[in-house]
Amino acid sequence: MCGIVGYIGFEDVKEIILGGLEKLEYRGYDSAGIAIENNDNMYICKEKGRIAQLRESIDKNITGTIGIGHTRWATHGIPNKINSHPHQSYTKRFTLVHNGIIENEDELRKKYLNNTKFTSDTDTEVIVQLIEKFVNDGESVELAIRHTMSELEGSYALAILDKTDTDTIYAAKNKTPLLAGKGEGFNMVGSDAMAMINHTNQFYEIEDREFLKITKDNIEIYTIYGNKVTREPYIADIDSSDIEKGTYPHYMMKEIEEQPFVMRKIMSEYSDEKGNMKISPEIIQNVRECDKLYIIACGTSYHAGLIGKQFFEKIAGKPTEVIIASEFIYNMPLLSENPLFMFISQSGETADSRAVLVKVKEMGYKTLTLTNVKGSTLSREADSTLLLYAGPEIAVASTKAYTAQIAVLAILAASVNNKINIDIFKELSKIAYTMETLCDDKDNYKALAEKYLQNSRNCFYIGRSMDYFICLEASLKLKEISYIQTEGFAAGELKHGTIALIEDNTPVIAIITQENINLNTRSNIKEVKARGAATMVISMRKFSQETDQIVIDDVNELLSPLATIIPAQYLAYYAALLKGCDIDKPRNLAKSVTVE
Ligand code: F6R
User: Fold this and answer.
1) Where are the chain's structural domains?
2) 301: Cβ below 6 Å to ligand 1?
3) Contact present, 3 and 71 (Cβ < 8 Å)
4) What is the pTM of this model?
5) What is the pLDDT of residue 27?
6) If you measure from the C-alpha of residue 177 to the centroid of ligand 1, how many angstroms do you get, rounded to a whole number?
7) Which residue among 202, 212, 467, 527 has its CA within the 20 to 30 Å range from the CA of 106?
8) Catalytic annotation on 175?
9) How far apart are the first and last CA of the chain?
């Protein structure tokens, strides 16, 4: 959940590393640091806080053509200057940045480093101290790094500098993302392509337990045993303008407003020249042949999975279970005889989901990943992949990837049952248009956020059936960026306990887009209103009432979540804005959760 970047070449490295770290800030932003080889000296600068603070502190006169940088999401040791990366070995010969968690750090300290004086509280320092110890024991640098890798239990992406060799960056990976970027007269290494895309679009995927030697002219990949790996780079299809904010005040606003475009992009990617749905026949066959579909995901992607279950059961007639990845791994349900596992993950790197993927692959089951990131770990390791085509999502709170997940799930379910009488593309086109109309109503959402949310301590979303799943996602969005304690409830459950929480002016936002539950949810609204709640209603036009604050044009009820979520995303956005929160980088969070 940290970000690392390294560069070796001919340009001044300072701006390249800082620029790369800014692109990686979504992965962690509680402290940051940089190391630059400068005339046989290792210049190190670290700061608590954001890259902007690091930028302020860095010595403007420092130059160099080899360097590494890190942006941190603390796991071991509080976020402060000392615990920030890079970390150095005791003689300061080796300097290292790390993303991941070393699980056996205590054993390694006892076994090898009893007499070593540590300066930080991090697990990372163990790695750099071990490398130095093995070198001092007589091993070559390469061997010492591979030896260290073989001792480490846990996850790591590493970039390492050796003060005595200013022509090489060493790197290594296990269970944490790492790419090498190939340039002309320079090479790079980083946690993702975005950190390097302003300089190159050619990347080498790195597998677990691989070790890299990177010079300005070469990228050499080796296994942990020292065997050379031959691999071709791939060209990343990312436009560097996709990762700029442009005139938008925040990435989240940009990404909310990109959703109509994403719907159209998905339709074009998943249609053939005649405009029919186009999904790999093998994937369709795997879904048809399984006796049960198990959807595994976390957070927002899990919420998309809950909606996917409705599609697979109602459109494709396929029994489906949706399970939170971190629960599945320690409490596996009784599985059907011939299951298919589907992983939904925007980043394709989420460690909890990956742990399940590794386990079910060992058990011999078929796997499919839905992800936004081509070449990501979950994509590479599953039997097949469906891409989301949402474009890079930078804001920590997921918006366009969520609706992309739902749209791709709908297309897959409809492709499995080609006899259904819903024209998914026609309905998705209507959704894209409705999303645009909803985006035009921003002033209304801002006014509602001012009235209902700005001064609230807590808030409830209520709804039934498809609307309930949106309540879960809407409440996650609101709580994660505005810090208002928000819960999503099945409206019928309120009277079984939760209604005790309703006080004068507690905001309760009801979602009503399903005709068969319209009257039931309206009764629940009356119940909370009678107990003092300040109620707001988001409803579909055909059964809206004059007093409903947000009305959505009629769309297919099964696909309505794609439209309903738009005002909820804006309400979260404006509530956070009004409360002065950091919208794109909420506290304590990181976008890519690569630790279990
Ligand atoms: C919330 C959010 C997270 C992610 C979750 C899984 O806005 O983005 O809840 O959905 O961390 O991440 P992915 O989808 O990358 O596996």
Assistant:
1) 3-238, 249-436, 441-582
2) yes
3) yes
4) 0.84
5) 81
6) 16
7) 212
8) no
9) 10
Which superfamily does 249-436 belong to? Answer: Glucose-6-phosphate isomerase like protein; domain 1 (3.40.50.10490)
Is 2 considered catalytic here?
A: yes
Give the closest residue (by CA) to ligand 1 atom 16: 345
Strands 458-463, 485-490: pairing is parallel
pLDDT (tens digit, 9 = 90+) per residue, 286-310? Answer: 999 999 999 999 999 999 999 999 9
Share of the chain above pLDDT 90, in %: 86
Architecture of domain 441-582: 3-Layer(aba) Sandwich (3.40)
* CB of 254 closer than 8 Å to CB of 245: yes
pLDDT in tens, 103-138: 999 999 999 999 999 999 899 999 999 999 999 999
- Distance (angstroms) between ligand 1 centre and the Cα of 591 equals 7
Ligand 1 centroid – CA 232 distance (Å): 30
Q: Of 356, 388, 398, 596, which is best to mutate to test ligand 1, by the most ligand atoms within 8 angstroms of its C-beta?
A: 398
Residue holding tokens 């024991």? 137
Domains 3-238 and 249-436 are alike in CATH topology: no
Out of 26, 326, 346, mutate this one to test ligand 1's pocket (max ligand atoms within 8 Å of CB): namely 346
Give the DSSP letter of residue 277.
Answer: B
Residues whose CB falls within 8 Å of the CB of residue 111, separated by 6 or more in sequence, listed in order:
none
Confidence of residue 40 (pLDDT cuts 50, 70, 90): confident
Mean pLDDT of 227-250: 86
- Tell me whether the omega of the peptide bond preceding residue 86 falls within 30 degrees of 0, making it cis: yes
Q: Looking at residues 373-378, what average pLDDT do you find?
A: 90
595 lines ligand 1 (CB under 6 A): no
Q: Is 560 in the pocket of ligand 1 (CB under 6 A)?
A: no
Please count the other Cβ atoms lying within 10 Å of the Cβ belonging to residue 185: 10
The correct CATH number of 3-238 out of 3.10.290.10, 3.20.20.80, 3.40.50.170, 3.60.20.10 is 3.60.20.10
The best mutation among 296, 482, 593 to test binding of ligand 1, ranked by most ligand atoms within 8 Å of the C-beta, falls on 593
In angstroms, the CA 586 to CA 6 distance is: 26
CA distance 135 to 93: 10
Q: Which atom of ligand 1 is nearest to the CA of 350?
A: 16
pLDDT per position as a tens digit, 142-183 = 999 999 999 999 999 999 999 999 999 999 999 888 999 999
**2, 290, 298, 439: the active-site residue:** 2
Nearest CA to ligand 1 atom 5: 299
